[in-house]
Write a structure and sequence with these properties.
alpha+beta, Aldehyde Oxidoreductase, domain 4, seven-stranded mixed sheet, 19 helices
Length: 753
């Protein structure tokens, strides 16, 4: 059994507020207090007579009922269920006796409240286990002292403490008050993986009942008496800014309360990394109803003017940098021309093994290919929105945020208000995918509320959301591979760049598996704002890398899976270099598992198969995609997926997340496209920006997890990137055409050969 230091003193762990009620209050930095909501629907038991109210805690009632707070924001990935499951397992409490609540933002109590990068469970794993194990140990000691028996003889099961020799037993609630008087142990013993009872079993989301019955959970559901509705007007194109506006006409329209200018980020302000926003000078319209504000917005008279070249300072997690913002109205055709030009230039070398340049000169076969992709919009089902009520006494905010810990400092700075006076309630998010890590809309809501001197609910239209920026960048990657006379891969070159960032991961596969390896990168600056998009950079590089490796395997006359496994065996047995990010054995493991589960060599008649495998966010995923043809249109029949993400907390929820990633990947690969003409997005709603339909989704998806005892790693993002490559490879098998530009539905490549 693993022992772990609690790293907490008694004062931090236990806060005695009202021990007379017979409950144990256990405080730790990840869990916070909140009265249970709808508790009667969540458990069959009667509620305790009284709950202890503290800032950060695990709460046990006198009847054994437990309230656990989920610290990270929830947008469908399931942390509001899986994080409390971890605590409950180490606590050894019956899951049916657990109430779960979403914690609000509180940096002091929760620390890094951030949902993104597939890091939630990975970062919280040890701390959540410690919290449950420490509580259990204190309850055991309390029982031992009460019964005058050795603590080592007490067993725990389902929230019941037992001592067999004396035939004594008690529920947690009965020992809670006594336990609260004890010192916090300096170290506790964590369970062996084999002893998990809750972890590794499928539990329904604790919010399912609320979702299916339409209870208010999401930001758009948020209600506040007397709240006004607000909308913003931003420039119609990147490269433009507000010159002037005349709000006199719309002020007289029905329901309109006020029209004014707000500036979300002041000149000279050092931005945080997630303070990304091209449009900081906006017009705000405030009114009584959404419909009235929308009508007024259409009638607003606004003049725009071109921006000049500018710079701003950014604090990138402790590293201050200066960011250039170029002037000009950018167009997609120009973007691709610029990327073509950059691909021909010398680039920055980020890794070099051996002497690839010389090997390419004498290679028996050389394969060269170029790939590109457009900008993409996140298009969360729930558009951006936020509630704010700012007064002289403080600010109350509520809404959907992935990164409240990063948004709160900007709100405080912009309002000129101490952080402790700002209260942020976290609602459930109707999709995030990285978009809601950029909380400019929360800042906008706060400024509008202050100016209007009223509570307001800021709502973006779909057009606002799609045209205000923070997109997946446009990328290009050029690959070159050399085979010797025995069809062995002897040299590999990747050069990748984008607008405005490079997607390159120089130390990922096949780095480490090829003696002669070269990775280079470049960037083209832009005034179009970009940001994290599900599996940033990987969402492009995985697809093109895996498509290219299939071409190399074909040129070598080898099965695509066997070809990859040979390279991975080399990376395991005799790795090249010392900076390789991935574990070749685990990457090979998902390939072997997906080969087995898909019955790879035996594709059904009329079915064409493609494979891919990729490492990102500390996890490994492999896909086999089956495609059939409906006339000239490829249809995804089935996807078999193998994932190694360490210990899986909630298997059904994990499978659901992977299934969503796969559908999302198919949709973006086939249809996703955002283009620009003179700085203006050509697509501003779903009539021109296609999202995958139900009829276009895979008909069958199988998810298989590698079984191991490795601590949990990422899951929300890793299954997404490999879809692009597996789909491209399957379509080639079906059509004889290889796709080098996304989206595949509009790309018309020639027949190969």
């Amino acid at each position: 059994m693993a022992k772990i230091k609690t790293q907490m003193g008694r004062r931090a762990f236990i806060r005695n507020t009202s021990l007379a009620s017979g409950g144990l209050v256990l405080g730790f930095s990840m869990l916070n207090s909140c009265k249970p909501k709808d508790a009667e629907k969540m458990v069959a038991r009667e509620m305790p007579d009284e709950w202890f109210e503290i800032n950060a805690y695990l709460r046990i009632g006198d009847n054994g009922l437990v309230t656990i707070m989920s610290p990270n924001p929830e947008f469908g990935q399931g942390v509001i269920t899986s994080m409390p499951m971890i605590v409950a397992d180490e606590l050894d409490v019956d899951w049916q006796d657990v109430l779960v609540e979403q914690a609000n933002f509180d940096q002091e109590d929760y620390g890094w409240q951030f949902t993104g990068g597939s890091q939630g469970i990975r970062r919280r794993w040890e701390g959540l286990r410690m919290a449950g194990a420490t509580a259990k140990q204190m309850l055991i000691v309390a029982a031992a002292e009460t019964w005058q028996v050795p603590a080592s003889e007490i067993t725990v099961s389902g929230g019941v403490l037992s001592h067999t020799a004396s035939d004594k037993s008690a529920g947690y609630g009965e020992m809670a008050a006594a336990a609260a008087k004890l010192e916090v142990p300096e170290e506790v013993t964590l369970k062996e993986v084999k002893d998990f009872i809750i972890i590794g079993t499928s539990k329904k989301s604790v919010e399912n009942h609320k979702i299916v019955t339409g209870k208010p959970l999401f930001g758009l559901d948020y209600q506040f008496d007397g709240a006004l509705v607000a909308m913003v007007v931003h420039p119609p194109a990147f490269g433009l800014q507000l010159k002037s506006f005349d709000g006199s006409q719309i002020k007289s329209m029905p329901g309109i309360v006020d029209v004014f200018n707000i500036k979300t980020l002041e000149d000279g302000f050092t931005r945080g990394y997630f303070d990304t926003n091209a449009f900081t000078d906006l017009v705000a319209i405030v009114g009584k109803t959404t419909w009235e504000v929308m009508n007024a917005k259409k009638q607003l008279n606004v003049d725009w003017e071109p921006i000049a070249d500018s710079k701003f300072k950014m604090d990138r997690f402790g590293t201050e940098m200066e960011v250039d913002v170029p002037s000009g109205l950018e167009s997609t055709d120009d973007h691709y021309a610029q990327m073509n030009e950059m691909a021909e230039r010398s680039s920055t070398t980020t890794r070099k093994d051996g002497n690839p340049e010389e090997v390419f000169k004498t290679a028996a076969k050389t394969i060269e290919r170029s790939y590109s992709c457009p900008f993409l919009a996140h298009n969360c089902m729930e558009p951006m929105n936020f509630f704010a009520h700012v007064t002289d006494e403080g600010a109350k905010l509520a809404g959907p945020l992935q990164a409240p810990v990063l948004t709160a400092p900007t709100v405080a700075a912009r309002l000129g208000m101490p952080a402790e006076k700002i209260d942020i309630e976290l609602t459930r998010m109707g999709g995030g995918f990285g978009r809601r890590a950029y909380g400019h809309y929360a800042v906008e809501a706060a400024l509008i509320s202050r100016e209007a001197n009223a509570p307001v609910k800021l709502v973006y239209t779909r057009e606002d959301d799609m045209t205000c920026g923070i997109y997946r960048p446009s990328y290009r990657a050029d690959y070159k591979a050399a085979l010797d006379g025995n069809n062995n891969l002897v040299a590999f070159h990747v050069k990748a760049g984008g607008i405005p960032e490079t997607p390159l991961f120089a130390n990922r596969f096949p780095a480490g598996a090829v003696d002669n390896y070269l990775a280079q990168q470049w960037e083209i600056n832009s005034n179009i704002t970009i940001g994290a998009f599900r599996a940033p950079r990987s969402n492009f590089m995985a697809g093109v890398e895996q498509a290219f490796l299939d071409e190399v395997a074909e040129a070598a006359g080898k099965d695509p899976i066997e070809f990859r496994l040979e390279l991975l065996q080399r990376a395991k047995d005799n790795p090249v270099g010392e900076e390789n990010e991935y574990d070749p054995e685990r990457l090979a493991g998902v390939l072997k598992l997906v080969r087995e589960k898909s019955n790879w060599p035996q594709a059904p008649s009329g079915t064409h198969r493609g494979v891919s495998a990729y490492f990102c966010h500390n996890s490994y995923a492999a896909h086999v995609v089956d495609v059939t043809m409906d006339g000239n249109t490829p249809k995804v029949e089935k996807v078999v997926c193998a994932i190694d993400c360490g210990i899986v907390i909630n298997p059904d929820a994990a499978a659901n997340m992977a299934e969503g990633a796969i559908v999302d990947g198919v949709g973006n690969a086939m249809y996703g496209n955002l283009s620009f003409t003179d700085g203006k997005p050509d697509q501003n709603n779903f009539d021109r920006y296609k999202i995958i339909r139900h009829s276009e989704a895979p008909k069958n998806i199988e998810i298989h997890f590698v079984q191991n005892e490795i601590d949990p790693t990422g899951l929300g993002e890793p299954p997404f990137p490999p879809v692009f490559g597996a789909l491209a490879n399957a379509i080639y098998k079906a059509t004889g055409r290889r796709h080098y530009h996304q989206p595949f539905a509009t790309d018309k490549p020639p027949l190969v050969g």
